[in-house]
Amino acid sequence: MTKLKIGLGTEADFFARGKQIARKLDRGEKVEESFSITFEDPADALELLTQARVGLFRAIKAEPASITSIAARLHRDRSAVKRDVDALLAAGLVSVEVAPNPGHGTHKVVRAVASRVDMHVLID
Questions:
Q1: Which domains does the chain possess?
Q2: What is the distance between the alpha carbons of residues 36 and 20, in angstroms, rounded to a whole number?
Q3: In the prediction, which pLDDT does 14 show?
Q4: Any bridge partners for residue 39, and if so which?
Q5: Which residues contact 91 (CB under 8 A, 6 or more apart)?
Q6: How far apart are the C-alpha atoms of 85 and 116, rounded to whole Å?
Q7: For burial by CB atoms within 10 Å, which of 1, 6, 38, 69 has the most?
Q8: Which superkingdom, per the lineage (predicted)?
């Protein structure tokens, strides 16, 4: 796993970051694999990263599992966990993989996409 950065920025910041990466590649430098999620509005970041979803992300990072197993472990309603997993999945914070379930076909396993999340929010 790698590092995930969450922060605030503009479209110009996005393209500037892309140019920095392109320049490194042009010079033959190694580019560290990382993921970045940038919000233009701090309210959007707060809407995604609720206390429940941060706790859910930590639980998934500690032990990837099915939604049903995670809900039981957190003592939360399965449908609420499913909604939160869907939001984290749409934002790119988790992935869902199909895994064999011995004797019972397959099941979906939720995994964190990064072992570390850095969040930087500065509100002017």
A1: 2-120 (1.10.10.10)
A2: 14
A3: 87
A4: 8
A5: 37, 48
A6: 18
A7: 6
A8: Bacteria
Q: Are the CB atoms for 118 and 6 separated by under 8 Å? A: yes
| Residue bearing tokens 């609420």 | 80
What is the phi/psi pair of residue 20, to 5°? -60, -45
pTM of the model: 0.78
109: enclosing H helix or E strand: strand 106-112
Residues in the chain: 124
Sheet strand arrangement including 34-39? 34-39, 2-8, 114-120
User: Of 51, 56, 61, 54, whose CA–CA distance to 71 is shortest?
Assistant: 56
Q: In this predicted model, what pLDDT tens digit does every residue of 37-80 receive, in sequence order?
A: 888 888 888 888 899 999 999 999 999 999 999 999 999 999 99
Cβ-Cβ contacts under 8 Å for 59 (sequence gap 6 or more): 70, 73, 74
What are the backbone dihedrals phi and psi of residue 74, each rounded to the nearest 5 degrees, phi first? -90, 0
